[in-house]
User: Fold this.
Amino acid sequence: MLLIVAIMPVQVFATTGWYSLETVTAFTPLTNGVEVRAGDTVVRVVALNPAVIRVRYARHGIFRADESFAVVERTGFVAPLVQLHDKASAIEFDTSELRVSIVKNPMRIVFTTLGGEIISEDASSASVSWNGSEFCVRKTMPEDEHYFGLGDKAGPLDHRNQAFTMWNTDAFGWQESTDPLYKTIPFFLGVRNGKAYGIFLDNTYRSTFDFGKASRETYSFGAEDGELNYYFFYGPHPKKVLEEYTALTGRPPLLPLFALGYAQSRYSYFPENRVRELASEFRRRKIPCDIVYLDIDYQEGNRPFTVDRTRFPHFEDMIHDLRQQGFKVVAITDLHLKKEVGYKPYDEGLAHDYFVKNPDGSTYVGKVWPGDSVFPDFTRDDVRRWWGGLYRNFVDIGIRGFWNDMNEPAVFVEPSKTMPLDAVHHVDGRVTDHREIHNIFGMANARATYEGLLQLQTNLRPFVLTRAAYAGTQRYAATWTGDNSSTWNHLRLSLPTLLNLGVSGYAFVGDDIGGFVGSPTPELLTRWIEVGAFNPLYRNHTMKGTADQEPWIHSSEQEIIRRRYIEMRYQLLPYIYTSMEETTRTGIPIMRPMFLEFPDQLQLTTTDHEYMFGSDFLIAPKIVETIDSYSVILPKGFWYNYQTGEPIEGGRSINISPPLDQLPIYVRAGAIIPQQPLIQSTDEVPKGALELRVYPGPNCNGSLYVDDGNTLNYKAGAFLRTKFTCEISPASLRLYLGPMQSTYKPWWQHVEITIINVTTPRQVTVNGKRISSWKFDPASKTLSLTLAATSTPTEVLLTR
Ligand code: MIG
Assistant:
């Protein structure tokens, strides 16, 4: 038995015939690249822009139809004209940013800088091989290269020495060794010596990525079927790679502001009175909160788009009353529809033939929450439009967001946990099977929901939360990391998992604060609520049968700390929203691994116990229960402790032991942070001044983006954008508030400026006029003054 196990892989390899790419025999120039022939394989290598190269292989010379679920904006790329050079050993072309060499014998692709430095290259042998429809690409793996991305992969931030499978899976109770998880984002960054490139394998079939498990010299990726079609993105700055990848696969739309507020969820809050009490409790205790989630038990017999009237006799009134209290309701609507005559979505879908089929033409039926269920064939345009329309009643009564769960798709069948691989799907007329569609099924579900809401909600921004995703799903929905656990290990894991999602183009992400499976200890919940204030999404959620997990649970001592961090989140919303708006234009996530902000500081390349929140905050949470102190690497330059204002020299490690009420937050010296007075929900207009906190230092700047936070009017220009800078010299500090480019009238009439770490000035002038209405606090060394807001530039000068 043992012997058979040992020799099996070798036999499979030898008898099923892996075929590897041979010598280049011919080539044809293309305007932006080249088409190369090696044996009967044809390879097209073209530049989409000077830094993005697309590589497609046709094993027997015939390319598949050029379709993609991920790629959207290829129109935004201007392909450069390139000149081919036919050299003895290679065919080469240059763009203005890199050189592509196609080595002839055996054929392999090498990307170098224009100076000839290797960025990334195919392995020297068996660089590309096939076994029937399966393929594998191998590239060299320098010892000092590190790998990031690939979506929701648990484990360390750096994927080196790990191997992964891409197959969307309902991974209840996942741990760091669990793979695959819920999403398929076949995009990764390679980072070496501070320089980055990216590779996106646009293939929806089951795929694999191996960074050094099978071989120490090469990494590999491949899929079981579908086209070998990948995109290569050159940085060298990792932010540039992300900008290029998200230019190709899309960036998230601007979320409504409430989506950045605190959200309370549980599986499930019912009946009606419990939901009402929950909401009132937040207001009574003055703990800010924007969203209450309704999980599956609000539905009648788990039928999506129904309401259990025994539990929720006045459902519409409840939604309305919560709305009056400043709560938005996000309701779950799973994609499985109960197979039951008389249930409208089933009857309609059946009448129009909208459901996924078995190979024999009958409707596929699988067991999920409602019992026997059917599945809309979301890859069809007409089905997506119909699905979108199903939200009409819920939208009409004021439900403001929707949660698409179970869309891997999850089916209660072991061991596959999903549909059979031969289930039949239609893609705009083309017939295919579940092997191709599985990994994009959740994406198509989220898309149908998002597009439906765009239609149904007059001028409101949709909010959709999805569990499953493929590359590009960021265009339609935010996501979370599924069923984590209430353990310190999962608090720790939340960092690399969310960070890797961020560098996979998925910026609007969160995890279940407090943990889904199990019940957190008081300290764990408190620490998690602290960290969550500095996550993109901020939702507390837990499973059926677990202990209560609301912020006031355990003791008033804990509640006071938790409230303070939720309040901090709300006070920082101007900063967070500004950063989120930046994401919609650049793809750069707000929650950033250290290497994204500081690629040159090589000791930070694989750091995953601290991270950046926007470009100005460094967060270094306590994530291990059993240690008292730990070290934080502060990047070069100066930093400030956000909670005390104390300046700290960077470029070194510091040892800290934060007590329970302290989340270590450091602000970059040179940051100008916009903040607002406390509100209990984003429905409330802040009362008082816009606050600008100035942390003097080099490269001193900040920015602010504001709009109504709710409608699509920003697309027609109804927003405000402004910038701030400061300059320090030995004798003065000059703060400049730039013009407000805007037609949008903001909520503030005054701007309160707080300058940290200064000495008493001799005089303060505003636009050249001396003023005396400033205050200096010698204890904290802060100067504060309040100005009337204007849309014209303002210069504040402090002279010593
Ligand atoms: O099979 O809707 O990940 O967040 O509370 C469980 C009930 C189905 C899984 C989700 C979880 C949600 C739960 N769902």
User: Anything to note?
Assistant: Residues 4-249 form a domain with the Immunoglobulin-like fold (CATH 2.60.40.1760). The pocket of MIG is lined by residues 267, 295-296, 332, 405-406, 467, 482-483, 541 (CB under 6 Å). Residues 1-15 have pLDDT under 50 and may be disordered.
